[in-house]
Each structure stands twice: as structure tokens, then as C-alpha cells.
Design brief:
The structure is a single chain. The protein has nine helices and four strands. With 231 residues, the chain is α+β, with helices and mostly antiparallel strands. The protein has two domains: 84 residues, 3-Layer(aba) Sandwich (Glutaredoxin), CATH 3.40.30; 103 residues, Glutathione S-transferase Yfyf (Class Pi), Chain A, domain 2. Strands 2-1-3-4 form a four-stranded mixed beta sheet, covered by helices on one side. Helix 1 links the parallel strand 1 and strand 2. Helix 1 crosses helix 6, helix 4 packs antiparallel against helix 5 and helix 4 runs parallel beside helix 6. This is Thiol:disulfide oxidoreductase. Pfam families: GST_C, GST_N. Belongs to the GST superfamily. It comes from Sphingomonas ginsenosidivorax.
Amino acid sequence: MIDLHYWPTPNGHKITMMLEETGLDYTIRPVDIGKGEQFAPEFLKIAPNNRMPAIVDHDPAVGNAPITVFESGAILLYLAGKTGRFGGDSLRERTEVNQWLMWQMGGLGPMLGQNHHFNIYAPEKIPYAMDRYVKETNRLYGVLDRRLTDRAFVAGAYSVADMAAYPWIVPHEAQGQTLADFPNVKRWFETIAKRPATITAYEKGKAINDSRTPMTDEQKKMLFGQTAATR
């Protein structure tokens, strides 16, 4: 049994997609980030960066003690190692998967996250910041589109690299992007959207929190006003 500490954000969706693909037994433990539940002492023991998702694997492959993992990319790699699936079968394949997973973790996610912040959530509209991140989002979509020119998925076979990137493309319209401008991304996106595991993962997220609900000022303060002193 795996406990998944989760909220339906792009990083959260990555993990439910992987868990549904692998068929692992898991229980969702909601962490309402708008209420500040990510700062609870018991959660910080699992995820010291006070971010979800995080997992606790109560049935690890080695030893009897539970294994805790935080950071979505690390969780995906852990689950790929645990199941022997979606992480690449050879050194060459694993390298392809890993470098595109790191591309998502180091580039696609952070840059699109800033796009969301300045264009959707920021109380002050700063044209330079908004333009900066919309353009960088467009550049990254272009990188992904070129990568998908001659392959179905980013590392060849469907992998955790695809599961990591897909949730960040879901809100493409809010990011100021048009999928028709990126035909290879559009094909890839529509293929993943139809996978039964993807459909189930998003249904579970919607059941916990409908993301269409507007964020309150108090929730924005909780999410975007943190310092080292935040508890």
C-alpha cells in the first residue's frame, strides 16, 4: 500500500497518472494547500520542502521499514524502479527518460508555473513578467514539438517523462498557447489524454477539488506569501 499525499495540481496529477498506469495499490491523503495543510508537522516529516506530492510506501521492495519520497520527479523515478515500468529498459533508454524528466523538472514546470502566477494569480499585473513567461512557455513548447517530430513519446516509448510533462500542457490556453501551433505536441497530448489511466487520474483529482473554483485572497496569501519563517 502506498499513501499518496496529494492535491490536484500538475505535480500531483503526475503521480496519480503513474500509479494508475502501474496498478499499484494506493490511498490518496489530500493535502489542501489552500488551507496550509502542507505546513503540518506530520507532513513536513515526509516532505521537508512543504510541497506536495509525497508518498509513503509501506511495502518497499527492500526491508520492512516504509520508504518516504518527496519531489514529483523523484517519486516517478522511485515508482519506475519499484515496478520496472515506464523508466526505460536499457541504459540508453533510461538516459533518454531521465534527461527529459529533468527537462520538465528544471524547465517546463518552473517556467510554466511562473506563467500561471503572473498571468492568473498575481495581484499586480506586470506586463514585462507576463510577456517574459508567455514567450518562454512558447519556446519550451517548441522544444517539445521538435522532439516529437519523429517519435510518439518524448523518450520513444511512453514513460514517466511523458507523465511529468503532460499535466503542465493541460492548461495551455491559460498559458497563452494554441496547440494547433505545435502539431506534434497536439498529437502527443491527445494520445495521452485518451489513456484510461490519465482519465481516471484526472477524475480522482476533480473529485477532491474542482480547479475551476476561484482562489480566494487568503488562499493566494497561503500559497505565494511564504518565507523561511512560515509554519
